[in-house]
Amino acid sequence: MLLKLYSLCLLVLDCISLVIKTALLLLEAMYHLVISPAEKSVEGEIVLITGTGHGIGRELAKKYALLGATVVCLDIDKAGNAETMAMIADLTGAREKHNRNANHQNGAHHSSRKAYAYECDVSDRESVMKMAAKVKNEVGNVTVMVNNAGIMPCKPFLSHGQQEVERLFRINVMAHIWMFEAFLPSMIENNHGHIVALSSMAGICGLSNLVPYCASKYAVRGLMEAMSEELREGGRGQNIKFTTIFPFIVGTGLVQKPKLRFPNLLGIVSPEEAAQRIITAMRRNQNEVSIPPALLYINNISRIFPSKMVHLVKDFVDSGCEAHV
Length: 325
Ligand SMILES: NC(=O)c1ccc[n+]([C@@H]2O[C@H](COP(=O)([O-])OP(=O)(O)OC[C@H]3O[C@@H](n4cnc5c(N)ncnc54)[C@H](O)[C@@H]3O)[C@@H](O)[C@H]2O)c1
What we know:
It is a multi-pass membrane protein. It is found in: Membrane. This protein is α/β, with parallel strands linked by helices. It has one domain (41-321): Rossmann fold (3-Layer(aba) Sandwich), CATH 3.40.50. Helices cover 54% and strands 12% of the residues. It has helices spanning 2-34, 55-66, 78-106, 125-138, 162-190, 211-234, 271-283, 294-302, 307-317, and strands spanning 46-50, 70-75, 115-119, 144-147, 194-198, 241-247, 258-259, 288-291, 320-321. The strands form two sheets. Strands 3-2-1-4-5-6-8 form a seven-stranded parallel sheet, with helices on both faces. Helix 3 (78-106) links the parallel strand 2 (70-75) and strand 3. The structure holds nicotinamide-adenine-dinucleotide. Nicotinamide-adenine-dinucleotide is lined by residues 50-51, 53-57, 75-77, 80, 120-123, 148-152, 171, 198, 200, 247, 249-250, 252, 254-255.
């Protein structure tokens, strides 16, 4: 009897503590709606990005390098990656020159920036493991990993071939798992790190002409959420942060035939702007961010309404991708 009473008291105390803590967290979230959270520094971090030979990945690499991070650029496209390296050298060289002049005047020390390129097919586990060993040897422990590389065949479901779907899943999903395997252990060991993944609005709601792609981007979202939960509950690596990004359409050419009824409202974002939003989300330790930001909230709210009503609004907005072939 006494034991039962004691357990009941503990449960009541737990409930009170839960209510107070959730209320405080709600207040904190509301405060951050008005005042943005501070952005952490990435200076001195080793940032590895996949798919840096073009598009969003290239812009991310340039921006992280300018922020003082050591950047590790991975791509299957050696020539594209070399172009990115040249761009980084130009940008950081110009910045260094400017800093040297300024520092020379006030006697301060300047830090040098570094970028490394590796040719790697991220869908191939063996290539990933070989590259990871090289990076550890030549650069050091990766502390920020951005899983960005992805492909997007766009056509009706029955027009997709078996090999194409399997390749899509190897690049868009399995690559994330190989990268986790390769780089998560050192992050857990040091209890320091950040993992960023490019999902898509196609990982939030189903879109026509993109059935396998949607499935792959839903998988990325699930992977990220489950991994961050496992670390949070497991007690090891609790300082490792996770940021999942859900862009709508970014002007990299990946979406060849965008369908936009209201381009001013739901338009194409430049790769530069997308990269800036991704880095800001990462530096603020945000878990999930869509580009544009309102889309995630609109989706969450729409899910409580009857699906027929949502379809009506979706048909009115009439935006997405036309089949590429
Ligand atoms: N562009 C968009 O509208 C859009 C929208 C939502 C989500 N996304 C996602 O953002 C990410 C980047 O898209 P993007 O538009 O910059 O694409 P992109 O085609 O411009 O660039 C992708 C890069 O990934 C590289 N890559 C492809 N397969 C690879 C492999 N097996 N190994 C290593 N590198 C490989 C390519 O060589 C290329 O350099 C993708 O995951 C994409 O699904 C893009």
